[in-house]
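Listing 4. Sequential folding, example run.
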Amino acid sequence: DTAHVYDSTGIQNLETRPNKLAIIGGGNIGLEFAGLYSKLGSQVTVYEASSAILPREEEVVAKLAKEYMEEAGVTFVLGAKIEQVAAAGEQVAVTVNGETAIFDAVLYATGRVPNTADLGLENTAIELLENGAVKVDDYCETTVPGVYAVGDVNGGPQFTYTSLDDFRIVFGKLTGTGTYSLSQRKSIPTSVFITPVLSRVGLTEKEAKEAGYDYIANELPVANMPRAHVNNDLKGIFKVIVDKESKLVLGATLFGRNSEELINLIAMAIDNKIPYT
């Protein structure tokens, strides 16, 4: 239990800005805080165990995001093996790949697990999955009738948007105003609030390939869009995956200004089976 080591909740309660911040994990949460604290003036180092950040996103987008963040002053250490995190006076010593660096604070951003261990659920009929998530049916109802589990705790995608959609399902079930269920869930757009914002809906090219689709992948740099020049913000790239035969959109990644709004148009096209033209 080392002081000055935080999760993504605890670090929001800091009263002073750390001059040097280490972030362990190069996923969505880690990068959002890296961008935030870098803008606030902290020297930020991100340690990522894999060979790339944002491993679930399009490779071209992940590389571009890393480039932009490095230009903003964020340092990345990829292939990082964390060997020790220990107190060093009023600071924290982080040993990675045999080398030790000193930081004012450390953020653990390696993902979250359902916080069910201390709930005493073993004394109830509520069943858990192997990863500790609460087992639910198509309406987010647990194995105890009348008890529901929504959000990260039921093992679904860890996004606010997914939790909100879980709520819609439970609300409809409890009030009798709807029959919407998990099996009817369509594509939920998500956003990572780095600069520029990274938004995605549906499949990436890798996922489409693994699913066996015969697809077309189109990329468009933001700098090629007239609106980007009007906004004087040329950073980013848009990528869309389309089924070759039906021309239906399988997925899209929008990395650019206002992507958190534009992605909803793509989601609408996917949900309503509007072909790509």
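-- end of first protein; second protein begins --
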Amino acid sequence: MQIAINFDLQIILLIFQIISLVVLGVFLLNSISNLWALERLGTFPKPKRYPKISILVPARNEENNIEGCVRSLLQQDYPDFEVLVLNDHSTDRTGEILKQIKDRRLKIFSGRPLPEDWLGKHWACHQLAEKAKGELILFTDADTVHQPTTLSSAVSAMLHDQADFATALPKEKTASWSEYLSIPIIPWSLLTFMPLAIAKRTKRPSLSATIGQFMLFKRTAYNKIGGYSSIRYNVLDDVTFGRKIRSFGLKWRMYDGSKLITCRMYTSFKQVLEGFVKFSFPIFKNNLIYFFFVWLFMAAVFSFPWMILLFWSVGIKFGYLWLAVASILSVLITWIIAAFRFRYPWWIPLIYPVILAMVCYIVFMSMIYTYLGKVRWKGRKIKTF
């Protein structure tokens, strides 16, 4: 069946489909470029000297993760390091588990009361940084696990590139459907949207994606940008740190740490929702106009080809089928690239429309929760306005 549309509408459809294909083609080329631009940790030459490094781990209600994290850090082959863990008023067995780990390089602290103008994790990290003695400081999350060569590989990369700040993308583990339908969006988004080849050659603060699970600073750089005390109530600490590094004229670098660092961010749909909600809307600076413009445009670019394919599948000849198929294949290939690079199941690319729909739902929930003042994390309410 052919839908009767006038010539002007046909031209508009053709133009929109071509624009959509061009945009998706650019994303595809960027994904391919990032396979080389995102260098792996473990591929850089060793330096002549490894500076002392302080590994800082804030921990709040991490009884299921803290032992694995700390023991993996203590097994590093790095010659000179200390591990500092701050028990941030945990109400579970986190403190008890930490006391059972005996190592002279491990120092455990209890967090001071949380001031009103600080976020909990930021306050914990600030206290840790005050106690750190290393030339380098690494902030890493309590739900990460590190291979023995993680530190030496990261520092080798940082010193080789003469960077002041380095971040690495872990292998984000997934074990439930709520995780499969949300977590892969992180590496896919990075490979698809972040032009790393350009980011390495520019000092633009906006081109400085950062992964909060692994943030390695030169101590001098951390102090220069003001540390956590300069972003006390900024939910996007990782994003903000990357941009501050650039804005202060310092050198930023990002690496692929997926073969050395693993992290299971969330274990249930509730955690997925809480975790993504707290930062998804703030990425848009809580600006409704900016938020809706970006998401409506992206929804149109990614969903319109499927709509045309659906029409043709039921015999309704609407739009240009070959352009729709080319657009869908472009997106599918970006997902295949991400799944291959970060070792996700082979079928993840096949369900990418469901993943995108899930993420759209979470992002809109983030907007609603932000305006209703219902954003929470680790049992603490986060003030949004």
